[in-house]
Amino acid sequence: MTEYKAPLREINFLLHEVFSAEQLWARLPELADKIDRETADAILEEMARMASNTLEPLNRSGDEEGCHWQDGRVTTPKGFTEAYAIYRQGGWCGLLGNPTFGGMGMPKMLGAQMEEITTAANVSFSLYPTLTAGACLAIDTHGSTELKQRYLPKMYQGIWSGAMDLTEAHAGTDLGLICTKAVPQADDSYALKGSKIFITGGDHDLTENIIHLVLAKLPDAPAGPRGISLFLVPKFIPNEDGSLGERNAVNCGSIEKKMGIKASATCTMHFDGAKGWLVGEVNKGLAAMFTMMNYERLGVGIQGLGISERAYQNALEYARNRLQSRAPDGPQAPSKVADPIIVHPDVRRMLLTQKALIGGARALSTYIAQWLDLSKYGFGAEQQRAEALTALLTPIAKAFFTDKGLDCALLGQQVFGGHGYIRESGQEQLVRDLRITQIYEGTNGIQALDLLGRKILANKGAGFELFSEEVQAFIHQQRDHQALAEFIQPLADALQNLRSVTAQLIDSHQKDPYTAGAAAVEYLHLFGFLTYAFMWAKVAAVAQPKATEDDFYLSQIKTAQFFFARLLPQSTALAASVRAGSTTLMEFDQALF
User: Fold this and answer.
1) Short-list 84, 109, 86, 105, CA closest to 96
2) What average pLDDT does the segment 195-222 reach?
Protein backbone atom coordinates (compact mmCIF):
# COMPACT_ATOMS: atom_id res chain seq x y z
CA MET A 1 0.00 0.00 0.00
CA THR A 2 1.23 3.48 -0.82
CA GLU A 3 1.78 6.10 1.84
CA TYR A 4 -1.30 8.28 2.16
CA LYS A 5 -0.84 11.92 1.22
CA ALA A 6 -3.63 14.33 2.09
CA PRO A 7 -4.86 16.03 -1.13
CA LEU A 8 -4.12 19.52 0.17
CA ARG A 9 -3.86 21.10 -3.28
CA GLU A 10 -7.39 19.94 -4.14
CA ILE A 11 -8.71 20.96 -0.72
CA ASN A 12 -7.17 24.43 -0.83
CA PHE A 13 -8.41 24.94 -4.38
CA LEU A 14 -11.97 24.26 -3.28
CA LEU A 15 -11.78 26.26 -0.07
CA HIS A 16 -10.08 29.36 -1.40
CA GLU A 17 -10.77 29.50 -5.14
CA VAL A 18 -14.09 27.77 -5.76
CA PHE A 19 -15.95 28.65 -2.54
CA SER A 20 -13.95 31.70 -1.33
CA ALA A 21 -14.10 30.49 2.25
CA GLU A 22 -12.09 33.34 3.74
CA GLN A 23 -14.53 35.88 2.32
CA LEU A 24 -17.42 34.06 4.00
CA TRP A 25 -15.55 33.82 7.30
CA ALA A 26 -14.67 37.53 7.18
CA ARG A 27 -18.32 38.59 7.04
CA LEU A 28 -19.52 36.31 9.86
CA PRO A 29 -18.77 38.07 13.18
CA GLU A 30 -18.21 34.88 15.19
CA LEU A 31 -15.60 33.65 12.70
CA ALA A 32 -13.97 36.85 11.47
CA ASP A 33 -11.39 37.09 14.27
CA LYS A 34 -10.73 33.35 14.52
CA ILE A 35 -9.93 32.07 11.06
CA ASP A 36 -8.28 33.32 7.90
CA ARG A 37 -6.53 31.63 4.99
CA GLU A 38 -3.16 31.46 6.67
CA THR A 39 -4.62 29.87 9.81
CA ALA A 40 -6.75 27.42 7.82
CA ASP A 41 -3.80 26.30 5.70
CA ALA A 42 -1.61 25.83 8.77
CA ILE A 43 -4.29 23.71 10.50
CA LEU A 44 -4.75 21.52 7.44
CA GLU A 45 -1.01 21.06 6.95
CA GLU A 46 -0.61 20.00 10.57
CA MET A 47 -3.55 17.62 10.28
CA ALA A 48 -2.04 16.12 7.12
CA ARG A 49 1.26 15.51 8.92
CA MET A 50 -0.45 13.96 11.92
CA ALA A 51 -2.61 11.74 9.71
CA SER A 52 0.37 10.50 7.70
CA ASN A 53 2.78 10.08 10.61
CA THR A 54 0.46 8.90 13.40
CA LEU A 55 -2.85 7.54 12.11
CA GLU A 56 -2.08 5.92 8.77
CA PRO A 57 0.69 3.62 10.09
CA LEU A 58 -1.87 2.03 12.46
CA ASN A 59 -4.54 1.40 9.82
CA ARG A 60 -3.34 -2.03 8.69
CA SER A 61 -2.17 -3.24 12.12
CA GLY A 62 -5.41 -2.06 13.72
CA ASP A 63 -7.39 -4.08 11.19
CA GLU A 64 -5.23 -7.16 11.76
CA GLU A 65 -5.46 -7.01 15.56
CA GLY A 66 -8.90 -5.52 16.14
CA CYS A 67 -10.34 -4.56 19.53
CA HIS A 68 -10.39 -6.88 22.54
CA TRP A 69 -13.11 -7.53 25.14
CA GLN A 70 -12.44 -9.17 28.47
CA ASP A 71 -14.52 -9.05 31.64
CA GLY A 72 -16.54 -6.10 30.41
CA ARG A 73 -13.51 -4.01 29.41
CA VAL A 74 -12.55 -3.07 25.85
CA THR A 75 -9.01 -2.37 24.73
CA THR A 76 -8.07 -0.91 21.37
CA PRO A 77 -5.26 -2.26 19.15
CA LYS A 78 -1.60 -1.63 19.88
CA GLY A 79 -0.60 1.97 19.29
CA PHE A 80 -4.09 3.45 19.46
CA THR A 81 -3.84 4.89 22.97
CA GLU A 82 -0.56 6.60 22.08
CA ALA A 83 -1.98 7.91 18.80
CA TYR A 84 -5.07 9.21 20.59
CA ALA A 85 -2.88 11.03 23.11
CA ILE A 86 -1.11 12.79 20.22
CA TYR A 87 -4.44 13.59 18.61
CA ARG A 88 -5.87 14.94 21.86
CA GLN A 89 -2.80 17.01 22.68
CA GLY A 90 -3.03 18.60 19.24
CA GLY A 91 -6.41 20.04 20.20
CA TRP A 92 -8.27 18.23 17.42
CA CYS A 93 -11.14 17.01 19.63
CA GLY A 94 -12.42 20.54 20.17
CA LEU A 95 -11.75 22.02 16.74
CA LEU A 96 -15.40 22.87 16.02
CA GLY A 97 -16.49 23.11 19.66
CA ASN A 98 -18.20 25.98 21.43
CA PRO A 99 -15.50 28.40 22.72
CA THR A 100 -17.60 29.16 25.80
CA PHE A 101 -16.77 25.68 27.07
CA GLY A 102 -13.24 25.34 25.71
CA GLY A 103 -13.76 24.53 22.05
CA MET A 104 -11.89 26.30 19.24
CA GLY A 105 -15.02 27.38 17.37
CA MET A 106 -13.64 26.69 13.89
CA PRO A 107 -15.97 26.55 10.84
CA LYS A 108 -17.41 23.35 9.43
CA MET A 109 -15.79 24.15 6.07
CA LEU A 110 -12.49 23.42 7.79
CA GLY A 111 -13.88 20.57 9.87
CA ALA A 112 -15.13 18.72 6.78
CA GLN A 113 -11.60 18.67 5.34
CA MET A 114 -10.20 17.45 8.65
CA GLU A 115 -12.74 14.62 8.67
CA GLU A 116 -11.77 13.55 5.16
CA ILE A 117 -8.08 13.47 6.02
CA THR A 118 -8.52 11.49 9.25
CA THR A 119 -10.93 8.96 7.75
CA ALA A 120 -8.68 8.42 4.74
CA ALA A 121 -5.74 7.75 7.04
CA ASN A 122 -7.55 5.52 9.53
CA VAL A 123 -11.33 5.35 9.52
CA SER A 124 -11.54 3.10 12.61
CA PHE A 125 -9.57 5.60 14.68
CA SER A 126 -11.56 8.55 13.33
CA LEU A 127 -14.83 7.14 14.65
CA TYR A 128 -13.90 7.75 18.30
CA PRO A 129 -13.43 11.55 18.06
CA THR A 130 -16.21 11.87 15.48
CA LEU A 131 -18.79 10.37 17.86
CA THR A 132 -17.49 12.66 20.59
CA ALA A 133 -17.93 15.73 18.40
CA GLY A 134 -21.50 14.73 17.58
CA ALA A 135 -22.32 14.12 21.24
CA CYS A 136 -20.87 17.52 22.14
CA LEU A 137 -23.06 19.16 19.53
CA ALA A 138 -26.21 17.54 20.93
CA ILE A 139 -25.31 18.51 24.50
CA ASP A 140 -24.42 22.06 23.49
CA THR A 141 -27.65 22.45 21.52
CA HIS A 142 -30.12 20.81 23.89
CA GLY A 143 -28.46 20.29 27.26
CA SER A 144 -28.89 22.42 30.36
CA THR A 145 -26.23 24.92 31.34
CA GLU A 146 -25.19 22.61 34.16
CA LEU A 147 -24.67 19.66 31.79
CA LYS A 148 -22.70 21.82 29.36
CA GLN A 149 -20.42 23.16 32.07
CA ARG A 150 -19.85 19.75 33.59
CA TYR A 151 -19.22 17.69 30.45
CA LEU A 152 -18.25 19.80 27.43
CA PRO A 153 -14.83 21.12 28.57
CA LYS A 154 -13.36 17.67 29.14
CA MET A 155 -14.99 16.29 25.99
CA TYR A 156 -13.50 19.12 23.92
CA GLN A 157 -10.14 18.40 25.52
CA GLY A 158 -10.47 14.75 24.55
CA ILE A 159 -10.13 13.61 28.16
CA TRP A 160 -13.68 12.28 27.97
CA SER A 161 -15.35 10.85 24.86
CA GLY A 162 -18.93 10.43 23.66
CA ALA A 163 -21.14 7.65 22.32
CA MET A 164 -24.60 7.51 20.78
CA ASP A 165 -26.87 4.71 22.08
CA LEU A 166 -29.94 4.25 19.89
CA THR A 167 -30.31 0.77 18.43
CA GLU A 168 -31.87 -2.20 20.21
CA ALA A 169 -31.93 -5.77 18.98
CA HIS A 170 -35.59 -5.51 17.92
CA ALA A 171 -35.56 -1.80 16.99
CA GLY A 172 -33.24 -0.47 14.32
CA THR A 173 -34.76 2.09 11.99
CA ASP A 174 -38.09 2.01 13.86
CA LEU A 175 -36.89 3.69 17.05
CA GLY A 176 -40.45 3.96 18.29
CA LEU A 177 -40.13 0.29 19.30
CA ILE A 178 -37.32 0.81 21.81
CA CYS A 179 -37.85 -0.68 25.28
CA THR A 180 -35.10 0.96 27.36
CA LYS A 181 -36.77 2.63 30.35
CA ALA A 182 -35.86 5.74 32.34
CA VAL A 183 -37.43 6.04 35.79
CA PRO A 184 -37.43 9.48 37.47
CA GLN A 185 -35.51 9.73 40.76
CA ALA A 186 -35.94 12.10 43.70
CA ASP A 187 -32.73 14.00 42.87
CA ASP A 188 -33.93 14.91 39.32
CA SER A 189 -31.83 12.15 37.78
CA TYR A 190 -33.22 9.03 36.06
CA ALA A 191 -32.46 5.34 36.45
CA LEU A 192 -32.00 3.71 33.01
CA LYS A 193 -32.59 0.04 32.40
CA GLY A 194 -32.23 -1.77 29.08
CA SER A 195 -29.74 -2.84 26.43
CA LYS A 196 -28.40 -1.29 23.23
CA ILE A 197 -26.52 -2.92 20.37
CA PHE A 198 -24.11 -1.70 17.67
CA ILE A 199 -22.80 1.14 19.85
CA THR A 200 -19.68 2.59 18.27
CA GLY A 201 -17.12 3.44 20.94
CA GLY A 202 -19.43 2.25 23.70
CA ASP A 203 -16.36 1.21 25.66
CA HIS A 204 -12.61 1.57 25.04
CA ASP A 205 -9.34 2.54 26.71
CA LEU A 206 -8.67 5.85 24.94
CA THR A 207 -10.32 8.16 27.47
CA GLU A 208 -10.94 8.08 31.21
CA ASN A 209 -14.69 8.55 30.86
CA ILE A 210 -17.31 7.85 28.17
CA ILE A 211 -20.45 9.95 27.97
CA HIS A 212 -23.41 8.03 26.53
CA LEU A 213 -26.38 9.78 24.96
CA VAL A 214 -29.16 7.22 25.36
CA LEU A 215 -32.65 7.09 23.92
CA ALA A 216 -35.17 5.74 26.44
CA LYS A 217 -38.82 6.05 27.48
CA LEU A 218 -40.36 7.21 30.74
CA PRO A 219 -42.84 4.78 32.31
CA ASP A 220 -45.84 6.88 31.27
CA ALA A 221 -44.49 7.93 27.87
CA PRO A 222 -46.75 7.86 24.79
CA ALA A 223 -46.30 4.89 22.47
CA GLY A 224 -44.06 5.16 19.43
CA PRO A 225 -41.47 7.82 18.59
CA ARG A 226 -43.41 10.57 20.40
CA GLY A 227 -42.56 8.94 23.70
CA ILE A 228 -38.77 8.95 23.34
CA SER A 229 -36.52 11.06 25.56
CA LEU A 230 -32.75 11.59 25.51
CA PHE A 231 -30.49 11.03 28.51
CA LEU A 232 -26.84 11.67 29.32
CA VAL A 233 -25.34 8.62 31.05
CA PRO A 234 -21.65 8.80 32.01
CA LYS A 235 -19.51 5.71 32.51
CA PHE A 236 -18.18 7.37 35.67
CA ILE A 237 -20.29 9.93 37.49
CA PRO A 238 -18.24 13.13 37.95
CA ASN A 239 -17.77 14.64 41.37
CA GLU A 240 -18.58 18.30 41.98
CA ASP A 241 -14.94 19.25 41.31
CA GLY A 242 -14.97 17.42 37.94
CA SER A 243 -12.91 14.46 39.11
CA LEU A 244 -14.16 10.95 38.44
CA GLY A 245 -16.56 9.56 41.01
CA GLU A 246 -18.38 6.27 41.29
CA ARG A 247 -18.67 3.78 38.44
CA ASN A 248 -22.10 3.98 36.87
CA ALA A 249 -24.22 0.90 36.18
CA VAL A 250 -23.47 0.87 32.46
CA ASN A 251 -21.40 -2.00 31.10
CA CYS A 252 -20.21 -3.47 27.82
CA GLY A 253 -21.51 -7.02 27.46
CA SER A 254 -19.59 -7.86 24.28
CA ILE A 255 -18.12 -6.45 21.09
CA GLU A 256 -19.03 -7.46 17.57
CA LYS A 257 -16.88 -9.48 15.18
CA LYS A 258 -17.25 -7.49 11.98
CA MET A 259 -16.47 -7.36 8.28
CA GLY A 260 -14.49 -4.12 8.63
CA ILE A 261 -13.61 -1.15 10.87
CA LYS A 262 -12.21 -3.76 13.24
CA ALA A 263 -10.22 -1.27 15.31
CA SER A 264 -13.46 0.55 16.16
CA ALA A 265 -15.21 -1.05 19.13
CA THR A 266 -18.83 -1.89 18.27
CA CYS A 267 -20.41 -2.70 21.62
CA THR A 268 -23.46 -4.21 23.26
CA MET A 269 -24.23 -1.95 26.22
CA HIS A 270 -26.27 -2.84 29.29
CA PHE A 271 -27.87 -0.23 31.52
CA ASP A 272 -28.73 -1.78 34.89
CA GLY A 273 -30.31 1.13 36.70
CA ALA A 274 -27.61 3.49 35.40
CA LYS A 275 -27.87 7.08 36.53
CA GLY A 276 -28.63 9.58 33.78
CA TRP A 277 -29.82 13.13 33.23
CA LEU A 278 -32.40 14.42 30.78
CA VAL A 279 -31.12 16.24 27.69
CA GLY A 280 -33.72 18.62 26.28
CA GLU A 281 -37.41 18.09 26.93
CA VAL A 282 -39.30 14.99 28.00
CA ASN A 283 -40.59 13.00 24.99
CA LYS A 284 -38.57 15.22 22.60
CA GLY A 285 -35.54 12.96 22.52
CA LEU A 286 -35.61 12.18 18.82
CA ALA A 287 -35.38 15.85 17.90
CA ALA A 288 -32.40 16.26 20.23
CA MET A 289 -30.72 13.08 18.97
CA PHE A 290 -31.21 14.09 15.35
CA THR A 291 -28.93 17.04 16.02
CA MET A 292 -26.19 14.50 16.58
CA MET A 293 -27.38 12.06 13.93
CA ASN A 294 -27.46 14.65 11.14
CA TYR A 295 -23.94 15.71 12.08
CA GLU A 296 -22.83 12.08 11.99
CA ARG A 297 -24.62 11.41 8.69
CA LEU A 298 -22.58 14.03 6.87
CA GLY A 299 -19.54 12.63 8.65
CA VAL A 300 -20.34 9.12 7.43
CA GLY A 301 -20.65 10.47 3.90
CA ILE A 302 -17.22 12.02 4.28
CA GLN A 303 -15.92 8.63 5.43
CA GLY A 304 -16.99 7.29 2.04
CA LEU A 305 -15.08 10.15 0.41
CA GLY A 306 -11.94 9.70 2.50
CA ILE A 307 -11.66 5.94 1.97
CA SER A 308 -12.32 6.46 -1.75
CA GLU A 309 -9.39 8.87 -1.93
CA ARG A 310 -7.16 6.31 -0.23
CA ALA A 311 -8.21 3.61 -2.70
CA TYR A 312 -7.58 5.97 -5.61
CA GLN A 313 -4.09 6.90 -4.45
CA ASN A 314 -3.17 3.22 -4.15
CA ALA A 315 -4.63 2.36 -7.56
CA LEU A 316 -2.98 5.30 -9.31
CA GLU A 317 0.49 4.43 -8.07
CA TYR A 318 -0.01 0.77 -8.94
CA ALA A 319 -1.23 1.64 -12.45
CA ARG A 320 1.84 3.77 -13.05
CA ASN A 321 4.22 1.01 -12.02
CA ARG A 322 2.59 -2.31 -12.93
CA LEU A 323 3.90 -3.52 -16.32
CA GLN A 324 1.49 -5.58 -18.42
CA SER A 325 1.13 -5.80 -22.22
CA ARG A 326 1.59 -2.96 -24.69
CA ALA A 327 -0.57 0.07 -25.42
CA PRO A 328 -3.04 -0.38 -28.32
CA ASP A 329 -1.10 2.09 -30.49
CA GLY A 330 2.32 0.62 -29.81
CA PRO A 331 4.92 0.55 -27.01
CA GLN A 332 4.90 3.53 -24.66
CA ALA A 333 7.88 2.27 -22.64
CA PRO A 334 10.01 0.54 -25.28
CA SER A 335 12.95 0.06 -22.93
CA LYS A 336 10.80 -2.08 -20.61
CA VAL A 337 9.33 -5.53 -21.03
CA ALA A 338 5.79 -4.07 -21.11
CA ASP A 339 3.96 -0.80 -20.65
CA PRO A 340 2.51 0.38 -17.34
CA ILE A 341 -1.17 -0.51 -17.19
CA ILE A 342 -2.18 3.15 -17.02
CA VAL A 343 -1.84 3.24 -20.82
CA HIS A 344 -4.80 0.88 -21.23
CA PRO A 345 -8.24 2.47 -21.84
CA ASP A 346 -10.12 0.38 -19.29
CA VAL A 347 -7.65 1.14 -16.52
CA ARG A 348 -7.98 4.83 -17.37
CA ARG A 349 -11.76 4.46 -17.23
CA MET A 350 -11.52 3.08 -13.71
CA LEU A 351 -9.07 5.72 -12.50
CA LEU A 352 -10.97 8.61 -14.06
CA THR A 353 -14.26 7.35 -12.66
CA GLN A 354 -12.69 7.36 -9.21
CA LYS A 355 -11.16 10.79 -9.72
CA ALA A 356 -14.42 12.32 -11.00
CA LEU A 357 -16.59 10.84 -8.25
CA ILE A 358 -14.13 11.76 -5.51
CA GLY A 359 -13.76 15.31 -6.83
CA GLY A 360 -17.52 15.75 -7.00
CA ALA A 361 -17.96 14.46 -3.45
CA ARG A 362 -15.19 16.65 -2.05
CA ALA A 363 -16.66 19.74 -3.68
CA LEU A 364 -20.17 18.91 -2.47
CA SER A 365 -19.00 18.22 1.10
CA THR A 366 -17.34 21.65 1.09
CA TYR A 367 -20.47 23.23 -0.37
CA ILE A 368 -22.68 21.65 2.31
CA ALA A 369 -20.20 22.68 5.01
CA GLN A 370 -20.50 26.24 3.72
CA TRP A 371 -24.26 26.13 4.26
CA LEU A 372 -23.75 24.58 7.70
CA ASP A 373 -21.55 27.53 8.67
CA LEU A 374 -24.21 29.93 7.44
CA SER A 375 -26.92 28.05 9.34
CA LYS A 376 -24.86 28.31 12.53
CA TYR A 377 -23.36 31.78 12.22
CA GLY A 378 -25.60 33.56 9.68
CA PHE A 379 -28.63 35.78 10.12
CA GLY A 380 -32.24 36.07 9.03
CA ALA A 381 -33.36 34.76 5.66
CA GLU A 382 -29.87 33.58 4.70
CA GLN A 383 -29.67 31.48 7.85
CA GLN A 384 -33.11 29.96 7.22
CA ARG A 385 -32.17 29.15 3.64
CA ALA A 386 -28.95 27.54 4.84
CA GLU A 387 -30.83 25.33 7.30
CA ALA A 388 -33.26 24.19 4.60
CA LEU A 389 -30.52 23.42 2.07
CA THR A 390 -28.47 21.56 4.68
CA ALA A 391 -31.48 19.40 5.58
CA LEU A 392 -32.11 18.66 1.90
CA LEU A 393 -28.52 17.79 1.00
CA THR A 394 -27.53 15.77 4.09
CA PRO A 395 -29.19 12.48 3.00
CA ILE A 396 -27.65 12.88 -0.46
CA ALA A 397 -24.21 13.35 1.06
CA LYS A 398 -24.57 10.34 3.34
CA ALA A 399 -25.97 7.95 0.75
CA PHE A 400 -24.48 9.11 -2.55
CA PHE A 401 -20.98 9.63 -1.15
CA THR A 402 -20.98 6.13 0.30
CA ASP A 403 -22.72 4.33 -2.58
CA LYS A 404 -20.31 5.88 -5.06
CA GLY A 405 -17.52 5.55 -2.53
CA LEU A 406 -17.93 1.78 -2.54
CA ASP A 407 -17.89 1.89 -6.33
CA CYS A 408 -14.57 3.75 -6.11
CA ALA A 409 -13.11 1.31 -3.60
CA LEU A 410 -14.09 -1.63 -5.80
CA LEU A 411 -12.59 0.06 -8.85
CA GLY A 412 -9.42 0.67 -6.89
CA GLN A 413 -9.30 -3.00 -6.03
CA GLN A 414 -10.03 -3.97 -9.64
CA VAL A 415 -7.07 -1.95 -10.92
CA PHE A 416 -4.85 -4.26 -8.88
CA GLY A 417 -6.39 -7.37 -10.41
CA GLY A 418 -5.61 -10.45 -8.33
CA HIS A 419 -3.27 -8.44 -6.11
CA GLY A 420 -6.25 -6.35 -5.01
CA TYR A 421 -7.93 -9.42 -3.53
CA ILE A 422 -5.14 -10.25 -1.10
CA ARG A 423 -4.32 -8.48 2.16
CA GLU A 424 -0.90 -7.17 1.11
CA SER A 425 -2.20 -4.47 -1.23
CA GLY A 426 -4.49 -2.95 1.39
CA GLN A 427 -7.29 -2.50 -1.13
CA GLU A 428 -9.47 -5.28 0.26
CA GLN A 429 -9.44 -3.64 3.71
CA LEU A 430 -10.69 -0.39 2.20
CA VAL A 431 -13.58 -2.25 0.56
CA ARG A 432 -14.48 -3.89 3.87
CA ASP A 433 -14.16 -0.69 5.86
CA LEU A 434 -16.20 1.36 3.42
CA ARG A 435 -19.07 -1.12 3.23
CA ILE A 436 -20.42 -0.21 6.67
CA THR A 437 -20.89 3.42 5.65
CA GLN A 438 -23.86 2.40 3.51
CA ILE A 439 -25.48 0.79 6.55
CA TYR A 440 -24.92 2.68 9.78
CA GLU A 441 -26.38 6.07 10.75
CA GLY A 442 -29.48 5.07 8.79
CA THR A 443 -29.15 2.73 5.81
CA ASN A 444 -28.92 4.39 2.43
CA GLY A 445 -32.42 3.22 1.59
CA ILE A 446 -33.65 5.16 4.63
CA GLN A 447 -31.66 8.20 3.52
CA ALA A 448 -33.37 7.98 0.13
CA LEU A 449 -36.79 7.80 1.77
CA ASP A 450 -35.90 10.80 3.91
CA LEU A 451 -34.91 12.78 0.83
CA LEU A 452 -37.89 11.91 -1.35
CA GLY A 453 -40.57 11.41 1.29
CA ARG A 454 -39.79 14.14 3.82
CA LYS A 455 -37.75 16.69 1.89
CA ILE A 456 -39.56 16.56 -1.49
CA LEU A 457 -43.03 15.00 -1.44
CA ALA A 458 -44.05 16.27 2.01
CA ASN A 459 -43.68 19.89 0.89
CA LYS A 460 -44.62 19.31 -2.77
CA GLY A 461 -41.16 20.03 -4.11
CA ALA A 462 -40.31 23.15 -2.12
CA GLY A 463 -36.99 21.64 -1.05
CA PHE A 464 -36.10 20.80 -4.61
CA GLU A 465 -36.99 24.31 -5.79
CA LEU A 466 -34.65 25.79 -3.20
CA PHE A 467 -31.69 23.88 -4.60
CA SER A 468 -32.90 24.40 -8.15
CA GLU A 469 -32.66 28.16 -7.59
CA GLU A 470 -29.00 27.79 -6.67
CA VAL A 471 -28.22 25.80 -9.80
CA GLN A 472 -30.31 28.05 -12.04
CA ALA A 473 -28.59 31.18 -10.72
CA PHE A 474 -25.20 29.68 -11.58
CA ILE A 475 -26.38 28.70 -15.07
CA HIS A 476 -27.68 32.24 -15.62
CA GLN A 477 -24.40 33.71 -14.39
CA GLN A 478 -22.38 31.61 -16.86
CA ARG A 479 -24.82 31.71 -19.80
CA ASP A 480 -22.57 33.87 -22.01
CA HIS A 481 -19.34 32.07 -21.10
CA GLN A 482 -18.81 30.17 -24.35
CA ALA A 483 -15.79 28.23 -23.08
CA LEU A 484 -18.03 26.63 -20.43
CA ALA A 485 -20.88 25.71 -22.78
CA GLU A 486 -19.87 22.02 -22.72
CA PHE A 487 -20.68 22.02 -18.99
CA ILE A 488 -23.47 24.57 -18.65
CA GLN A 489 -25.88 23.12 -21.21
CA PRO A 490 -25.69 19.54 -19.89
CA LEU A 491 -26.12 20.93 -16.38
CA ALA A 492 -29.25 22.79 -17.49
CA ASP A 493 -30.54 19.61 -19.15
CA ALA A 494 -29.87 17.56 -16.00
CA LEU A 495 -31.72 20.14 -13.90
CA GLN A 496 -34.71 20.04 -16.22
CA ASN A 497 -34.67 16.23 -16.21
CA LEU A 498 -34.78 16.14 -12.39
CA ARG A 499 -37.45 18.85 -12.33
CA SER A 500 -39.66 16.81 -14.65
CA VAL A 501 -39.15 13.59 -12.66
CA THR A 502 -39.87 15.41 -9.41
CA ALA A 503 -43.13 16.82 -10.76
CA GLN A 504 -44.22 13.35 -11.90
CA LEU A 505 -43.46 11.88 -8.46
CA ILE A 506 -45.42 14.61 -6.69
CA ASP A 507 -48.38 13.83 -8.92
CA SER A 508 -48.04 10.04 -8.54
CA HIS A 509 -47.75 10.31 -4.78
CA GLN A 510 -51.32 11.60 -4.58
CA LYS A 511 -52.60 8.33 -6.08
CA ASP A 512 -50.05 5.68 -5.10
CA PRO A 513 -48.78 5.33 -1.50
CA TYR A 514 -45.88 3.19 -2.73
CA THR A 515 -44.46 5.97 -4.91
CA ALA A 516 -41.76 7.12 -2.49
CA GLY A 517 -40.55 3.65 -1.53
CA ALA A 518 -40.40 2.43 -5.12
CA ALA A 519 -38.51 5.44 -6.49
CA ALA A 520 -36.44 6.68 -3.55
CA VAL A 521 -33.01 5.14 -4.20
CA GLU A 522 -32.96 5.89 -7.92
CA TYR A 523 -34.26 9.39 -7.23
CA LEU A 524 -31.48 10.05 -4.71
CA HIS A 525 -28.88 8.89 -7.22
CA LEU A 526 -30.47 11.05 -9.92
CA PHE A 527 -30.31 14.01 -7.54
CA GLY A 528 -26.75 13.06 -6.60
CA PHE A 529 -25.57 13.16 -10.20
CA LEU A 530 -27.10 16.63 -10.57
CA THR A 531 -25.26 17.87 -7.48
CA TYR A 532 -21.96 16.51 -8.81
CA ALA A 533 -22.62 18.10 -12.21
CA PHE A 534 -23.24 21.42 -10.44
CA MET A 535 -20.00 21.04 -8.49
CA TRP A 536 -17.91 20.11 -11.54
CA ALA A 537 -19.37 23.04 -13.48
CA LYS A 538 -18.41 25.39 -10.64
CA VAL A 539 -14.92 23.87 -10.57
CA ALA A 540 -14.59 24.24 -14.34
CA ALA A 541 -15.65 27.89 -14.19
CA VAL A 542 -12.73 28.64 -11.86
CA ALA A 543 -10.17 26.33 -13.49
CA GLN A 544 -10.83 27.17 -17.15
CA PRO A 545 -9.03 30.56 -17.27
CA LYS A 546 -5.95 29.02 -15.63
CA ALA A 547 -5.83 25.71 -17.49
CA THR A 548 -3.03 26.81 -19.84
CA GLU A 549 -0.85 28.01 -16.97
CA ASP A 550 -0.89 25.04 -14.59
CA ASP A 551 -1.51 21.34 -15.14
CA PHE A 552 -3.51 21.18 -11.91
CA TYR A 553 -6.23 23.35 -13.45
CA LEU A 554 -6.02 21.44 -16.73
CA SER A 555 -6.57 18.22 -14.78
CA GLN A 556 -9.70 19.72 -13.21
CA ILE A 557 -11.09 20.64 -16.65
CA LYS A 558 -10.29 17.23 -18.14
CA THR A 559 -11.90 15.44 -15.18
CA ALA A 560 -15.01 17.61 -15.50
CA GLN A 561 -15.19 16.71 -19.19
CA PHE A 562 -14.98 13.02 -18.31
CA PHE A 563 -17.73 13.36 -15.73
CA PHE A 564 -20.12 15.10 -18.12
CA ALA A 565 -19.35 12.75 -21.02
CA ARG A 566 -19.14 9.38 -19.28
CA LEU A 567 -20.91 9.54 -15.88
CA LEU A 568 -23.68 12.12 -16.03
CA PRO A 569 -25.48 10.19 -18.84
CA GLN A 570 -26.39 7.59 -16.20
CA SER A 571 -29.07 10.10 -15.20
CA THR A 572 -31.11 9.10 -18.24
CA ALA A 573 -31.40 5.49 -17.09
CA LEU A 574 -32.11 6.53 -13.50
CA ALA A 575 -34.92 8.81 -14.63
CA ALA A 576 -36.44 5.96 -16.62
CA SER A 577 -36.34 3.71 -13.55
CA VAL A 578 -38.03 6.34 -11.40
CA ARG A 579 -40.75 6.93 -13.99
CA ALA A 580 -41.52 3.20 -14.12
CA GLY A 581 -43.49 3.52 -10.88
CA SER A 582 -44.28 0.89 -8.28
CA THR A 583 -46.32 -1.58 -10.36
CA THR A 584 -43.60 -4.11 -11.15
CA LEU A 585 -42.51 -4.08 -7.52
CA MET A 586 -45.78 -4.22 -5.65
CA GLU A 587 -47.83 -6.44 -7.98
CA PHE A 588 -45.27 -9.21 -7.67
CA ASP A 589 -46.97 -11.68 -5.34
CA GLN A 590 -44.93 -12.64 -2.28
CA ALA A 591 -45.35 -16.32 -3.10
CA LEU A 592 -43.50 -15.80 -6.39
CA PHE A 593 -40.28 -14.82 -4.67
Assistant:
1) 105
2) 97
